[in-house]
TrEMBL record:
Organism: Fontibacillus phaseoli
Keywords carried by this UniProt record: Glycosidase, Hydrolase
Listed name of the protein: Glycosidase
Superkingdom classification of source: Bacteria
Entry-linked Gene3D superfamilies: Glycosidases (3.20.20.80), Golgi alpha-mannosidase II (2.60.40.1180), Immunoglobulins (2.60.40.10), Oligo-1,6-glucosidase, Domain 2 (3.90.400.10)
Name of one Pfam family that matches: Alpha-amylase_N
Amino acid sequence: MLLEALYHVPRDKWAYAYDTATIHLRVRTKRDDVEQVFAMTGDKYDWDGTYQEIPMEKAAHDRIFDYWEAAVKPRFKRLSYAFKLIAGSETVYMMDTGIQHEGPTPPGELYEFPYIHEIDLFKVPEWAKKAVFYQIMPERFANGDPSNDPDHVQAWGGKPAGDNFFGGDLKGVLEHLDDLIDLGINAIYFTPLFVSPSNHKYDTVDYKKVDPQFGDNELLKEVVGACHDRGIRVVLDAVFNHCGEQFPPFQDVLRNGAGSKYADWFHINEFPAQIKDGIPTYDTFGFFGNMPKFNTANPEVKEYLLGVAEYWIREIKLDGWRLDVANEVDHHFWRDFRKVVKEANPEAYIIGEVWSDSLTWLLGDQFDSVMNYPFADKVLEFFNGGMDGYNFSNEMGSLIMRYPQQTNEVVFNMLCSHDTPRLLTRVGSDKRKLKLCVVFLFTYIGTPCIFYGDEVGITGEGDPDCRKCMEWDPRKQDRELYDFYKMMIALRKEHGALRQGRFRFLQANPNDPCIVYERMDERMHFTIWMNNTGKYRTLSHPMETEDWRDALSEVKVKPKDGMMNIGLDPFGFRILYRKLK
């Protein structure tokens, strides 16, 4: 076997406590190079009395590597361990002292997980594992109170631009909560609500005041209360990387320069703070001069922003924060942010906006989750014909192995957002492809999120076109698509196996865009069959038992001679299940 490919470190995603009784171990090997892996485990103070040799499962793979995983329940909350790897007649051992062909001499030479301390345990909110999120841009969702419309408001449903307004507000959200209940939504993520001159509100001016165009603080409290009465959780957007140029402390810097008492609240590279040769003399979000970047290492800035985070958690019983441009804020700030927020609400759900591998933020001391844009990119590439099943399984395996299981169970999965083209547009307006994407979203591990209006067929290119007004006229809505979303949401909410069960590809072959995969827990076993081609296909996979049913129709589906054969229309799918208990 290729020894250079073997990898394990006794920390991070490779060795971590899943709960107070369970340690997860992972090890990496070259793809298709190792036949068996065993975790050799025991207590260093009583190795002979506690020794267990636990078979590891090949949990995922990517293009180059296989990833093996085992859940270990040590008797005394501590663990010493090594790995035994077998390929043909060759056996090697991985341990803290290196890789060798002779077994370890316990208690020396072993990796250690010294103790499961509950205070160190990475706990994520249990409710987020069951959540189906709905992302709302308040300005574009519904106009419930025309009296608070901004000047020059345009007629509802007009063409969105970077600087126009249509009058959406919190009263409009309040009036449509029962529509979200009908769809099956049990969590809302609002883009920014606080005072700002823009339609998107990512350039905040007053962090403790709802923008008057949306209503006021009391109305927000009423909306959150009404959501909670209906079993809907609420997450707000926190823009703590930067503020708007009209933010009073920044205005003081513009007036008083280096003499401003707020001069160190920002990253001013040269006074006066201005746009010089097209580039701000101060750090900003991107190069937008109207969004100056906070110096979050400044104690006064940190105290102010953490006070904002705590204020809304306590004031309106907020259920969590989505953190804008989270990767550009220092880690010290986010560690303190987590402490403040979790003290105010231990079940608060913290989602960072990070567009790439985010493990640094997902080790239990900062975020619970991140916006999983890599998921969206890979899913859309596959269902748009950009890769075969083999490569898709590799890509998804790589994503699963990025994070510990508790993060995977609540990672924020979406197929589009206010920062991307609309889902229907991204699949070339082919509803069959859209449905395959949505089926995958709702049968995959993680917390799914719908961007408002996708369920009724709203289209749109990138910002600002993706930020169209919600369509409320039933005659202009795609009601068949709405019913499909409603059906998939209900299926996911009903079955724990689709939320936290094991995910594994059963069929994903080179040069074939069709896939079969499974979700399974101790109660239910699901298999999902997808024909990602424009031709009728019959997919086959070995299945011995005859107790399968179609999850959407309850029709019995039996294999023949131990082989399940499923005929699928072009870009069609089928979901089967059987009860294990």
